[in-house]
């Protein structure tokens, strides 16, 4: 194919992506994705794909719900869901069978389950059930709602019952959520106070690249968020902040460093790939503070869910 024809193909694809973004309510950032003042770099051994090595767009499948399971860890077994009788295993099995139960999640009824470095007070206190993952907390995104103190025996029933309720409350633009459900009096529900979550794949057991890049990206993000008084670490639940955490394998390690963003106010969900430390400040300025402004060439996926009022 002649060079001119090849360039026309790329331009045509870029125009299609931009049209899809506009239809979803996303705005293309006019700012450079690289921050020239950032001196932090990955080690020379880390090789990040160049943008010329294929489009990132739609390299992740749409989904309607992500269940985040706090573990307080930064790495996990190769199959993070393999240990039978533990929350990750039970929730993962539930998700595979349950997506079609909830048409209110939208056309993308796939449910994603991730274990995370998020740490709850019970994990910090050494609670045996929580440490052994036979009881724990779940973060439901894009609802920004915590399910607290659920057991492996009850988790499937609790999720089956609470998700339709959350969908109904969201669609009715309710400013409150339920605190308890009758059948499970020990389980409570709590609204996350943060304006955004950022997740970085750190699953070193699956891919060494993630284990190297994620801590560097996290440190750089937290520096910039602290300057803005937006950084929230474990135990800091002041309203309006941003929490940066690790998750296990999300697919597409070759596109690392992967950055997944949830924005509470607008319901936007953004997946970025091929990110480097000098991209951190533009990500915060444009994606977080700019309410979801994006760079088409860096996008793996964008989704916009109905905003929540609570």
From TrEMBL:
Gene3D superfamilies: Glutaredoxin. InterPro entries: Aim32/Apd1-like (IPR009737), Thioredoxin-like_sf (IPR036249). Pfam families: Suc_Fer-like (PF06999). SUPFAM superfamilies: Thioredoxin-like (SSF52833). This is Actin patches distal protein 1. It comes from [Candida] anglica.
């Amino acid at each position: 194919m002649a060079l001119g024809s090849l360039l026309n193909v790329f331009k045509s694809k870029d125009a299609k992506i931009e049209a899809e973004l506009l239809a979803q309510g996303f705005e293309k950032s006019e700012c450079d994705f690289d921050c020239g003042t950032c001196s932090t770099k990955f080690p020379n051994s880390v090789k990040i794909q160049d943008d010329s090595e294929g489009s990132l767009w739609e390299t992740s499948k749409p989904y309607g719900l992500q269940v985040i399971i706090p573990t307080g860890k930064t790495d996990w077994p190769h199959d993070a869901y393999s240990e039978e009788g533990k929350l990750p295993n039970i929730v993962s099995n539930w998700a595979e069978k349950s997506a079609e139960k909830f048409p209110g999640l939208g056309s993308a009824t796939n449910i994603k389950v991730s274990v995370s470095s998020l740490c709850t007070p019970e994990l910090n206190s050494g609670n045996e059930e929580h440490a052994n993952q036979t009881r724990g907390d779940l973060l439901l995104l894009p609802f920004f709602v915590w399910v607290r103190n659920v057991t492996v025996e009850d988790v499937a029933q609790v999720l089956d019952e609470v998700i339709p309720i959350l969908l109904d409350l969201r669609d009715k633009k309710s400013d409150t959520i339920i605190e308890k459900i009758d059948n499970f009096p020990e389980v409570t529900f709590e609204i996350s106070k943060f304006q955004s979550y950022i997740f970085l794949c750190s699953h070193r057991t699956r891919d060494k690249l993630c284990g190297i890049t994620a801590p560097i990206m996290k440190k750089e993000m937290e520096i910039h968020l602290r300057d803005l008084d937006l950084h929230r670490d474990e135990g800091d639940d002041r309203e309006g902040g941003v929490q940066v955490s690790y998750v296990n394998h999300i697919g597409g390690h070759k596109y690392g460093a992967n950055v997944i963003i949830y924005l509470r106010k607008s319901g936007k969900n953004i997946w970025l790939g091929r990110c480097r430390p000098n991209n951190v400040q533009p990500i915060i300025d444009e994606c977080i503070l700019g309410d979801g402004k994006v760079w088409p060439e860096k996008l793996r996926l964008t989704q916009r869910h109905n905003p929540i009022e609570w």
